[in-house]
């Protein structure tokens, strides 16, 4: 096994020098020798890296020495920086040491020592990598590939551990509990957290920049963790949470900016976690929740949508609460095409529709409660064309229709209730033409119509499931 001094030894790579005069037999021999030396140095480098990878599987002191030696080598030689990073990441992907059990409560137990050493080394690996991704890094590792796939972020305590015991992922106290990529820049490279598990950990990507390249959290599981993307910027490139599971804990995108990236939550499942996008801004790019399921927990989009596209195509809302409270839709498009609302609550309370296109075309409302209470429809279009209402409630109390278009044409009302108590119609167009009223109830009797009343087909008899204001009287 190589000694620490061997690992930190500097490898000198001789560079062939051109002779000052013409080629001679002596100069050719010299260049050939220099090339052999360079090749031997490259071989030595490969052997050195292989040795370092082996040492990362041994005792803590040697492992920490190997981390420092690899960091130094990556800093000083850009040519082998990616190779050093790959070894550091591979060490993180190794199966973690088994957690201590009930029989390992004593501080001196071998299993506890191995577990503590393993956590300490993993923290050293993570903090070393993260430090080189921040703006204040003396030598930046930005733009290099990082593979954290399958990694387990776990800061939960072992059985019998006190609150003052080992709380960090790889540390030895509460101060080490947070794993921080705050302020890191993931730019122009492939970064993978695919299949990673965030359980009981506190992980921060606050203020991080995801620009260009590809970043994947595909298939990741967030259960009992606190993960923050607060203030992060997604600008260009692709970021994938496809198939991720948000089971418990908190995930925050508060204040994040989605400016040009493709962010993919397709097929993600929200089944208990609290996910917040409070104050997030969608100014460009594409964000997809296609086929995602919102089954439990709470997801809050108290955000500003001024451009780009946010798609919930084929999403299923079966439970929990999804909120767009006080959200602003002033540009871009938000689509719920073919989405299914069968349970839980979806709230657009206080939302302002001032220029976006918001589409529920072909959506099915079968049991959820969807509320537009106090929402303001001033510009743009909100479309329920071809939607099916078979159960649940759609509420527009105190909503203001002053401009833009709200279209229900071609929809089918076959159950459930749709209420417009105290809703105000003073401009724009609200279109109920070609709606199939068969069952359920659409109640506009309590609306306040100042001008531009909703438009309907011409009937001989008003459908029994429709209640209209008396002669559309003005307030």
Global mean pLDDT: 84
Determine the strand fraction and express it as a percent band: 35-45%
Distance between the termini: 89 Å
Coarse structural class: alpha/beta
Largest sheet: 17 strands, parallel
Low-confidence stretches are 1-21, 37-42, 162-176
- Rg is 30 Å
Shape: elongated
What's the count of strands? Answer: 34
Q: What is the helical fraction, as a range of percent?
A: 10-25%
Q: With helices defined by DSSP (H or I, 4 residues minimum), what is the helix count? A: 5
How is this structure best described in words?
The chain has five helices and 34 strands. It is of the alpha/beta class and 475 residues long. The chain is elongated, with a radius of gyration of 30 Å. The chain has a domain at 145-472. α3 runs antiparallel to α4 (81-93), α3 (60-76) packs parallel to α5 (110-131) and α4 runs antiparallel to α5 (110-131). Mean pLDDT is 84; it is low at 1-21, 37-42 and 162-176. The strands form two sheets. It has a 17-stranded parallel sheet that branches. It is 19% helix and 37% strand. The protein starts with a helix and ends in an 8-residue tail after the last strand.
Keywords for this entry:
single chain; 475 residues; alpha/beta; 17-stranded parallel sheet; 5 helices; disordered N terminus
């Amino acid at each position: 096994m190589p000694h620490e001094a061997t690992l930190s030894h500097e490898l000198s790579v001789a560079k062939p020098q051109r002779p000052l005069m013409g080629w001679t037999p002596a100069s050719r021999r010299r260049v050939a020798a220099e090339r052999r030396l360079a090749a031997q140095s490259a071989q030595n480098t490969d052997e050195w890296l292989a040795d370092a990878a082996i040492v990362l599987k041994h005792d803590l002191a040697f492992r920490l020495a190997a981390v420092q030696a690899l960091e130094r080598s990556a800093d000083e030689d850009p040519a082998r920086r990616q190779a050093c990073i790959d070894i550091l990441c591979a060490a993180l992907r190794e199966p973690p040491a088994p957690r201590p059990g009930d029989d390992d409560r004593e501080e001196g137990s071998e299993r506890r020592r191995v577990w503590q050493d393993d956590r300490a080394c993993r923290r050293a690996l993570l903090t070393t990598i993260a430090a080189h991704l921040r703006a204040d890094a003396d030598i930046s590792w930005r733009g290099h590939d990082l593979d954290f796939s399958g990694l387990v972020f776990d800061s939960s305590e072992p059985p019998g551990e006190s609150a003052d015991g080992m709380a960090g992922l790889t540390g030895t106290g509460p101060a080490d509990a947070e794993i921080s990529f705050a302020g890191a820049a993931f730019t122009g490279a492939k970064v993978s957290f695919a299949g990673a598990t965030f359980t009981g950990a506190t992980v921060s990507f606050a203020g991080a920049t995801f620009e260009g390249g590809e970043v994947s959290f595909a298939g990741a599981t967030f259960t009992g963790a606190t993960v923050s993307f607060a203030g992060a910027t997604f600008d260009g490139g692709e970021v994938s949470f496809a198939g991720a599971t948000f089971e418990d804990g908190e995930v925050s995108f508060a204040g994040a900016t989605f400016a040009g990236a493709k962010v993919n939550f397709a097929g993600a499942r929200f089944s208990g976690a609290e996910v917040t996008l409070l104050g997030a801004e969608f100014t460009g790019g594409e964000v997809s929740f296609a086929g995602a399921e919102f089954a439990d927990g709470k997801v809050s989009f108290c955000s500003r949508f001024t451009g780009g596209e946010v798609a919930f195509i084929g999403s299923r809302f079966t439970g929990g609460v999804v909120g767009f409270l006080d959200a602003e839709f002033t540009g871009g498009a938000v689509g719920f095409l073919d989405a299914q609302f069968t349970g839980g609550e979806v709230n657009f309370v206080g939302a302002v529709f001032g220029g976006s296109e918001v589409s529920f075309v072909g959506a099915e409302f079968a049991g959820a409660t969807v509320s537009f209470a106090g929402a303001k429809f001033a510009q743009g279009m909100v479309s329920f064309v071809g939607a099916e209402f078979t159960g649940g409630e759609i509420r527009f109390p105190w909503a203001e229709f002053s401009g833009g278009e709200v279209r229900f044409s071609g929809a089918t009302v076959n159950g459930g209730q749709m209420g417009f108590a105290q809703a105000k119609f003073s401009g724009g167009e609200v279109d109920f033409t070609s709606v199939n009223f068969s069952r359920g109830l659409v109640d506009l009797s309590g609306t306040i119509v100042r001008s531009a009343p909703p438009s309907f087909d011409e009937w001989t008899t008003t459908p029994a499931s429709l209640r209209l204001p008396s002669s559309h009287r003005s307030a």
